[in-house]
Design a protein that fits this description.
Layout (H helix, E strand, L loop, with lengths): L11 H25 L18 H11 L9 H16 L4 H15 L1 H8 L10 H12 L4 H19 L2 H7 L8
Length: 180
Amino acid sequence: MPSLSESPELSRRGLLKIGLCAGAFLSTAGLAASLSGCSAGHPASGFAVLQDNDLPFLRALIPVMLEGAVSAEKMPAASEQTLASLDHSLNHLSPEMLKLTRQLFDVLAMGITRGPLTGIWGRWENATDTQIHAFLERWENSYLSLLRMGHASLLQLVMMAWYNRAEAWVHCGYPGPPKI
């Protein structure tokens, strides 16, 4: 497979143009989310940081990311525990990091940006595991570094939230912190 620099269809200049257009698109979407009040919301009931518009996306994403680490019968509880752990972690982020995470969540929650960026045109609640896998793979392998960074952020947030919990340690063979 030729590298991007060897590909005749995509020059450096073309890649920069695409990157600038994507950056402008995401900035505009973030601004639209801010102006429409998406990111100005209050935490959902029972959460310190996560908002109501974050929950459908995260409740669809978490089980897909935890596949293989959690049995099907334990998945609903594991998903909710991971959501609680994620909320706790977000509550302890620096204001700037939280702002960036909010922007990512807002872009994924808004239908106008969700469809073109993820390929999931309907509501998150109706997305199949296959569609979510395709979205994650699309972002992981994107030639746009912004989408690759978004994928890495989602992966790190969810995995740290899950593996921060004692229930997850058995799966990876971690005996837990040393007893003092």
